């Protein structure tokens, strides 16, 4: 019987419903279709349960729901004397699953509203009560994944109720902050000040204000059991718990200032392993300076515990926070670092303090003074000549002048600052910059624009000389830019990105003395660190960019990989996303793991066309020949020009070069399949038939099945105070693509030009839905932290958009099946109307 039940389950999963029906009818010894009024037999209750799921799968939802209600009533009335202990245990387990299905199906059919919330919550509650250790019990007939089990579902439904009432509250005309929920709910009426404050809003008897208070109370009412359920889920699960942990953080950071929820959080943190928090350290660090005292106190206590047990995992993130320009954030990070000194003094010193200062020295190497001034003068000129904002211009240049006043510390900085008889005069800029600063100071006193013009004559002179010098920077010697880093030997500090609780710690033995500078727009460095295990670890050392965004993107990719591995169909095809370590060092620099044996598509196509004597930008040349003013054409005209270029070029460069680079047909087939599948995964987490479309459907199916897990990660992005979502206009988004085709073998170099940010949007949106989707980017600024924690409307719109995609509602209000959705996405992604409007640097004609 168990074999046949498993067989019927596989038939349902693969869409062979007729065969599943025949198998279940054989096991039931009756055909319910022919006897619709007859109750299902309870001799073998798991068979009846499987049949009810089968008719739900067929779309007969009302019949399935009705039969499930009757089936549950029958099972509950089984006399306990008729079953032995093992049978009663199995019946309780089955009842737990039945109540869970009742809750899920009711929500599926009627949605979540004030009329049915109580009933749905009650079904989920009964599910947890009938089998409290569901995560630990695996019934032999079914392979049940943890994501659909009782405690997780109980937590999720309560979390959805929180969101439901939060949206209700937000829709109210008069905004009432959730932090003003009356404390009498938590303290039993002991806080008179809170009651008086609340009475001021409600004593007038306004129905609107009373309803707002009810909504606020309901939020806390459901937040508490949600947090409890997530902690139970995390404690009992042995697999991936990232999505549950992120949901806990969302509720914690939003409502943890209420005493009742605070107490639940304190007890819940004690119930789970400290290792569970390692996967969400970026989110914990982001809230290290929370203005809510109860929230920050738990956070600091938890980070201190993590520092005791896993100092290597915490040292780099704390180093970033300790360099923050926000005093509260800086103070909080240093407070935890001081506590870490009690048990890991050498580690903290090696990472941050003066003697070694690995983090500080890596930042010095990532951005030389020449590059700082080049970038600063470029921004200052934009502010002054473009926006006529003198105050912002002076504010941009002020920290750069302050850096010069502190004096040089390395030979490279000395050559920038002071002329010398042994150094060519054109390499010293200190005198000109000092004179320019004097003119700026004169302007602040006189407001005479001539003083600023004098200053800019000098600034422009310096900028031109630096611009000529930077392309000559192809290698960097540590003895000139960071002698401290050169002498670092046999440290306790782990190699960045290598710490793993289940493996021995790989410490830094030494740093390679020569760094290669990649000749791309932002000139990242190729850095090699020798580990204590004798292996060399290669990184891309990047400046000019906040890598904390990329760090969170890797979290999302990790979750997607876990979901793909858990799914049997995608696991058999080894579908996954290539990940690499991301270690922020400051708010504008960091390390990215080097991906070996990796080529960019641009480099491959360039090499192929060079050998074939074909112009690299032949398609663009054809377009400009037909329409020199292409950017100013109407949409229909752009489509005509775009199609003309496509029709007059072969467009088979990639397929030809894969064939030519493959030594055998077997190698060619493997490379072709690998490329097709990896492209499909990234496109769904864009239109071709066969293997590509099949993989797209497979990945989209997995994403939709685990939509709550994906949404948990996305919501963590939205609620992160260090990340602010905004929509940029076309001109700004065009600028983002400038560096997309710079040549580098490092995945991190692609990241520097915004490519990884765009890939992130591919995954969360599961589609390159015309290139306009790429105009939505994540931008980070520490100024956001200083503002009140108000959720950006653009972010909420993105969350709702992604939720629609994960439920199949992105093209209509009615959910569509996965194959249809994938077909629509492919047509949209390959539409010439969309491609012809892309930024030309993205090479949409390829």
From TrEMBL:
EC number, as in UniProt: 2.7.11.1
SMART domains on file: FATC, PI3Kc, Rapamycin_bind
GO molecular function, one term: protein serine kinase activity
Isomerase keyword on record: no
First and last residue of the signal peptide: none
Keywords: ATP-binding, Kinase, Nucleotide-binding, Repeat, Transferase
GO biological process, any: negative regulation of macroautophagy
InterPro entries: DDR_Repair_Kinase (IPR050517), FATC_dom (IPR003152), FRB_dom (IPR009076), FRB_sf (IPR036738), HEAT_ATR (IPR057564), Kinase-like_dom_sf (IPR011009), PI3/4_kinase_cat_dom (IPR000403), PI3/4_kinase_cat_sf (IPR036940)
Domain of life: Eukaryota
Reactions catalysed, as given in the entry: L-threonyl-[protein] + ATP = O-phospho-L-threonyl-[protein] + ADP + H(+); L-seryl-[protein] + ATP = O-phospho-L-seryl-[protein] + ADP + H(+)
Chain positions covered by the region annotation Disordered: 177-211
Transmembrane annotation, as ranges: none
Gene Ontology cellular component terms for the protein in this record: cytoplasm; nucleus; TORC1 complex; TORC2 complex
Residue intervals of the PI3K/PI4K catalytic domain: 511-691
A Pfam family reported for this protein in Swiss-Prot or TrEMBL: FATC
Enzyme class: transferase
Biased composition, class Acidic residues, residue ranges: 193-204
Entries under SUPFAM superfamilies matching the protein: FKBP12-rapamycin-binding domain of FKBP-rapamycin-associated protein (FRAP), Protein kinase-like (PK-like)
Domain FATC, first and last residues per copy: 814-846
Domain FAT intervals: 1-324
Protein family: Belongs to the PI3/PI4-kinase family.
Protein name: non-specific serine/threonine protein kinase
